[in-house]
């Protein structure tokens, strides 16, 4: 691990982004407490501006740029929540933002990024082609901001943990959706710094759990990317991972996997029992609780990380339809 990211970085990030983000509430869940015997609360971060916590890291990174970097602008390749957060953060800061994507990206995702005010550059037919364009823009002086493996991104994501501790000072267990690990690295670092007794549990989907496989292998490994209801949890951890692999190893007590059926049940539960619209990736903590996969949750906060689900798909799921996204790839 290069130089450590600390609680001090977390507080500095919070001060930096305070005017750019929303403090999201924590609510207790009677239904989940009854179902599990624990005292279950939900950190409703899906209500963050742009619909996910990714705005925290993106804002912190954009607001940490030097004047020279600000003048050039930022570039990213994410078509999902990081892209949205980055586009919005850059626009708020008056910084140019280009998101590069392949022509295979569906129009609704392109529109989602454009709606946040970014320039979209469509290049080639693969993520690799898009990366070539990014490399050219970086050679030209623009700053590439990756979705998770970056100090300022991790420090920004960690600010959600400061709120969780203030809203639930007695918490014993935190459930954190896990993909590349920017979120859990930040949350885990803060939790362990404040109270090492807090249990930090990362939750991924069975289909394409890159960090889970990497931790098991003892080093970052490639996993096949599969379609899943938890689409924001797809993608690898990066074979040259700088921060999040080591931080996950250091700060996370347990990694748990959930199935597509469990994710669908959690989206359904969130809607009918909690009156919340959440995306698959945001629901994995609830999925693990409902499936009985969290032993003795105690005073437990499930971090609900995002809401950006296709509403037609959401409608089908909450209507009880047996949605099988795995058939599509
Ligand atoms: C990005 C994302 C995650 C996972 O975050 P990582 O930092 O990549 O582990 C979880 N939920 C949602 C909604 C996301 O957008």
What is the topological layout?
Layout: H1 7-17, E1 26-28, H2 30-36, E2 39-44, H3 54-63, H4 67-72, E3 74-76, H5 81-93, E4 97-101, H6 107-115, E5 119-122, H7 127-139, E6 143-144, H8 151-167, E7 173-177, H9 182-194, E8 199-205, H10 210-217, H11 244-251, E9 254-258, H12 260-272, H13 284-290, E10 299-304, H14 311-318
Parallel strand pairs: 2-10, 3-4, 3-6, 4-5, 7-8, 7-10, 8-9
Antiparallel strand pairs: 1-2
Bound molecules: pyridoxal-5'-phosphate.
Care to describe what's here?
This protein is α/β, with parallel strands linked by helices and 329 residues long. The protein folds into two domains: 7-52 and 150-328, Rossmann fold (3-Layer(aba) Sandwich), CATH 3.40.50.1100; 55-144, Rossmann fold, CATH 3.40.50. Helices cover 43% and strands 14% of the residues. Helix 12 crosses helix 13 (284-290). The protein binds pyridoxal-5'-phosphate (PLP). Pyridoxal-5'-phosphate binds at residues 52, 54, 81, 148, 177-184, 232-233, 279, 281-282, 305-306.
């Amino acid at each position: 691990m290069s130089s450590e990211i600390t609680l001090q970085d977390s507080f500095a990030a919070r001060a930096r982004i305070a005017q750019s983000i929303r403090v999201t509430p924590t609510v207790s869940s009677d239904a989940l407490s009854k179902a599990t015997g624990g005292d279950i609360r939900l950190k409703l971060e899906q209500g963050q501006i742009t619909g996910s916590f990714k705005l925290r890291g993106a804002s912190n990174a954009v607001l940490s740029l030097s004047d020279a970097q600000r003048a050039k602008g930022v570039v990213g390749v994410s078509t999902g929540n990081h892209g949205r957060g980055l586009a919005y953060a850059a626009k708020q800061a008056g910084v140019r933002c280009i998101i590069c994507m392949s022509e295979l990206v569906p129009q609704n995702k392109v529109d989602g990024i454009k709606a946040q005010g970014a320039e979209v550059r469509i290049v080639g037919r693969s993520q690799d082609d898009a990366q070539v364009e990014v490399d050219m823009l970086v050679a030209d002086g623009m700053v590439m901001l990756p979705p998770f493996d970056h100090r300022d991104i991790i420090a920004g994501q960690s600010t959600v943990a400061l709120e969780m501790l203030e809203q639930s000072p007695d918490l014993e267990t935190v459930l954190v959706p896990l993909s590349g690990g920017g979120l859990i690295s930040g949350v885990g670092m803060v939790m362990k710094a404040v109270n090492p007794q807090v249990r930090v549990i990362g939750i991924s989907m069975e289909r394409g759990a890159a960090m889970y496989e990497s931790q098991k292998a003892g080093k970052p490994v490639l996993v096949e990317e599969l379609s899943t209801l938890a689409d924001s949890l797809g993608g690898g951890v990066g074979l040259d991972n700088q921060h999040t692999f080591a931080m996950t190893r250091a700060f996370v007590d347990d990694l748990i996997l959930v199935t597509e059926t469990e994710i669908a049940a959690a989206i359904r539960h969130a809607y009918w029992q909690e009156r919340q619209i959440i995306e698959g990736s945001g629901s994995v903590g609830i999925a693990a609780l409902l499936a009985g996969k969290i032993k003795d949750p105690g005073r437990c906060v499930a971090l609900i990380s995002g809401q950006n689900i296709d509403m037609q798909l959401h409608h089908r799921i909450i209507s009880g339809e047996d949605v099988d996204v795995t058939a599509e790839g």
